[in-house]
Amino acid sequence: CLTASAGEELSAKLCRRHDINEGAAQPRRAAVFNPYTEFKEFSRRQIKDMERMFRLYDSGRDGYIDLMELKLMMEKLGAPQTHLGLKNMIKEVDEDFDGKLSFREFLLIFHKAAAGELEEDSGLLTLAKLSEIDVSIEGVKGAKNFFEAKAQALSSASKFEAEIKAEQDERKREEEERKHRRAAFRELKSAFTQ
Which range is the signal sequence, renumbered to this chain (predicted)? Predict the structure, then answer.
């Protein structure tokens, strides 16, 4: 690396970029990945939906979407890509240079799309748009309601707490129903055994 005059941090970043360009970079892996803290712009429901979508297309069940799985995904979503296009899609978000998409890298697609960091002709932008609201179908009023709800959800400081509480309430309600059914069954059973 030719970065003798740069600061230590900048020098390390430039050396890393040089190694990446030369193909000599070692993959970096985060110790722990928590999508809820790293991708705060998405609600718990959105992340769970994206995880469901990821698992649907991860046919190898290895926790990654490889080139052929991405090809199948794009075909099923109605936006087939060339082999080279698929490789470029993976390369655009592949942080660990393994040639496949982890769930974190999959979420990164939607993060970059929301931030406007994807190129207009990118297959990744097409993938991200397929999960967005279609104004031509919903109309302007539908989009207005969608964006108002989105802004309200983002401004809510306790949105995760509310979602967790709703999930807990649902589980409690299901448990109460289960107890009630068991008691009714026992009562019915005792009527037949006497």
Answer: none
DSSP codes of every residue in 134-188: -HHHHHHHHHHHHHHHHHHHHH-TTHHHHHHHHHHHHHHHHHHHHHHHHHHHHHH
Domain regions of the chain by residue span: 35-131
Q: What is the pLDDT of residues 115-159, one digit of tens each?
A: 877 777 677 777 777 665 444 444 444 555 556 666 565 555 566
pTM of the model as a whole: 0.53
Does CATH number 1.10.10.60 belong to domain 35-131?
Answer: no
Q: Give the distance between the most distant pair of CA atoms in the chain.
A: 93
Higher pLDDT, 117 or 56: 56
